[in-house]
Amino acid sequence: MSTPSTTFQLARPLPRTLAPFPHEDLRSYLRRLAWANGISANMLTAPSTWLSPHRDFVAYLSTISGQPRESLLRAIPLLGDAPRPLHPAMASGRPCRLCVARCTGQPDSSLIAWRSQFHDQVCLRHHRWLGHPDNPFLLQADLRPIPDVVQAFRRHRRLLRRHGPALLDACYEHCSHLWRACLSTGLRSSSRERRLRLLQVDDWITAPADPRWHAVDYPEIIHLVSLYASAHWRPRAAAGGSELSSYFFELARRVPDWGVLAAASGDHRGEFQQAALDIDRVLELTGSACSP
User: Which residue from 63, 73, 3 is spatially nearest to 33, judged by alpha carbons?
Assistant: First the structure.
């Protein structure tokens, strides 16, 4: 969000101060600040009757909110004349409700913050599934009954630190689609069935957009991501033939209870190969490299 460029103008500083949540969206912060003081959010950007018309928006916001300028600039990414650039794969959405309650004193479901579309699915502090930022569901599943999802997220973050966002963005996006394609052919694993049961996800009752579906599939997706991120295994998937078969055997070794070998001779063999080629193309376009 670009900051307003007009003159601003409450009659006086607001009586109640409010600290911004880390990476909070500017609109979200203005809305919460106004609500805490019993006024309309539009009043926060109306013309001022007492501040200088040349005063910049960050200084104005610092004055009326009672928050230091540095704190506002550090917490709100899209604020100021030179806002911090966001990675292209960042999106605004609901953060962990328990983190919000811890920082603000109440589980405000209207608070919006910026986070990665692909790499911030889990709150490690509270073991909650956050899913994609634009998820419309308020449900944030408790992952304590299924610790393998939390373990997969820790591995995901290690892969991100090792390979960087350009490669991991492409791997995660392609592997998510690839896994869904495999599920459409009836592939099953006992681990996935256990997670379905513990999260109470049912084919007939649970909505297709419910974020718990993604939580259930997440560990297998990360197994795929780790292979496609590898400079050793991705070329084998891209080569096809016997090299692709060796890739499938390695995947079956890592996920022994999954009938992955069925995919090696099925209709999705070409999709596994194409995913590797597409990821290589992304790396060429971004000039990124990866570790073995």
Answer: 63
* Those residues with Cβ within 8 angstroms of residue 180's Cβ, 6 or more apart along the chain or in another chain: 217
Q: What is the DSSP letter of 24?
A: B
Burial (Cβ within 10 Å: 0-12, 13-18, ≥19) of residue 41? middle
Assign 40 to helix, strand or coil: coil
CA distances 87 to 92, 188, 190, 272, Å, are 12, 35, 37, 27
Looking at per-residue pLDDT, the higher value among 228 and 58 belongs to 228
Q: What is the pTM of this model?
A: 0.84
Count of beta carbons in the 10 Å neighbourhood of residue 109: 11
Cβ proximity of 276 and 234 under 8 Å: yes
DSSP 41: G
SS (H, E, C) 171-210: HHHHHHHHHHHHHCCCCCEHHHHHHHHHCCCCCCCCCCCC
pLDDT in tens, 24-53: 999 999 999 999 998 888 888 776 655 555
Nearest to 243 by CA among 227, 256, 259, 257: 227
Which residue in the block uniquely carries the two structure tokens 């997220």? Answer: 153
Joined together, the tokens standing for residue 80 give 């100021």
- For the chain, the helix, strand and coil percentages under 3-state DSSP, each to the nearest 5: 50, 5, 45
For residue 21, give the DSSP letter. Answer: P
